[in-house]
Amino acid sequence: MSKVFDGNIEATELLLQIILERKDVKVVRVKGQVELKSPYPGGRNIKLDIDAVDGKGVEFDVEVQRNTKGSHIRRPRFHQSMMDSRLLKKNQDFKELKDTYVIFICQHDKFKENKPIYHVDKIIRETGKVFDDGAHIIYVNGKYRGEDDFGKLAHDFNCKKADNIYFKPLADGVRHFKETEKGRDAMCESFTKLADKVADEREEQTLINAIKLMMKNSKFTLEDALNTLEIKGKERAIIAKQLQK
Question: What Pfam families does the entry give (predicted)?
Answer without folding.
Answer: PDDEXK_2 (PF12784)
